[in-house]
Amino acid sequence: MYEVIVNPNKKVADTGELLVGLGDSTVDNKGIALQHKTQTVYYESLSQYVYSTEFKNLNAPQCCQQIFIEDFSVDTILSLWIFLHKKLDQVLPENVINWVNYASKWEKGDTTTTGKAFESYGCLQSALVLSMKNYSASEIVTESLDFLSTLIRQDIDPATISKLTNNSTYGQAYESLEKEYKKYQALLSDNETAKLHIPQIQSNEPMEVSGIFLETEIISSIQKVFLRNDIENSPTRNGFAFMAVYNVKAKGTGNDIVISVDPLKKVHLKALWKALEEEENSLWEEIRPKDNPRPLKSYPDHNGPNEPWWDDMGKYTLIAAPKMVHGQYGRRVSWERVKQLIKQLYAKGAQL
């Protein structure tokens, strides 16, 4: 039995520790750090990296006594499921590659080909986690791994999961999903929406999209699916392709401000990322920590800050706030200023 600990700020794997989606697997860890973002080869998801990589010394006595994770997401659970099978030297089912591809799409924010909300593994997994708020991290991961294993062994398509009448975990997840939809309907009435004009990747010509500014403690991946596909309530009547989410209680984790666009729209937020970094540098007044820069596509010379705004590996479809750095909050740009910059860049005729 492994002890699972949720710690988004874990940087180094010590002896007996496994980091899933955390740390840097290219440096000298005493334990094991599974991290695709620091590899020289590009991987679309952590699952793809773990699936494609051969690991050494997996049977060492001190391997994986403690497992550190960032969250209970599709990518985290599938990556751990694959890794544990490799650790036990078990042959992976052939259909696992379908699940890896699904996880990669889910990580990109694809809410179209990953299935309808009530049939999507991503939504069901998220709903399962939400239904287990009073459980330990170890219990949630164990239940999630068991659920995933059942689906894979039955060769079920992760995008079209129909009702599993004899599976109590599925029933629990489905019921939780129904509750989330009711919460989503309430969420819409409390937050600001707008028409925005976001540049397209190929031409930089602006595309009109619906945007929403959310101030909420939790914005679940389920609610994101509802938002992306909400034809009725979005100003352009084709779903909310732009979301800016502020969670004041998550400051320092990198998840306190997350701004994203629907990747299928093929638009980008590069101008916003540049504006946020410039604003951040100005507010730090030359003392922004740069002694250990985080690898980032936007800083090819490795001369950026330790904790920059995340650039989604240079794709600029998801921008996330800096994490803690040297015991300080890495973000100094306020939420109000972030909103102001968004409107200044993308809202025609915005009042600033």
What is the residue-mean pLDDT, rounded to a whole number? Answer: 91
What does the overall shape look like?
globular
> Strand arrangement, largest sheet?
5-6-7-8-9
How many structurally independent domains?
2
**Range of strand content:** 5-15%
For the sheet with most strands, the description reads: 5 strands, mixed
How much is the radius of gyration in Å?
20 Å
Query: Spans with pLDDT under 50 lasting ≥5 residues?
Result: none
The sequence of SSEs as H and E is EEEHEHHHHHEEHEEHEEEH
List the total number of helices. Answer: 9
Assembly level: single chain
Number of strands: 11
User: Ends: how far apart?
Assistant: 55 Å
**Helix-residue proportion:** 25-40%
Structural class computed from helices and strand pairing: alpha/beta
Can you put this structure into words, describing what you see?
The chain has 352 residues and is an alpha/beta fold. The chain folds into two domains: 3-186, no CATH class; 190-346, no CATH class. It has nine helices and eleven strands. The chain has helices spanning 46-52, 74-87, 96-108, 121-130, 137-153, 168-188, 221-228, 270-284, 335-346; strands at 3-6, 17-20, 32-34, 66-69, 192-199, 206-215, 240-246, 257-261, 318-320, 324-325, 328-329. A five-stranded mixed β-sheet has the order 5-6-7-8-9, covered by helices on one side. Helix 2 (74-87) packs across helix 5. The longest helix has 21 residues, at 168-188. The protein starts with a strand and ends in a 6-residue tail after the last helix. The mean pLDDT is 91.
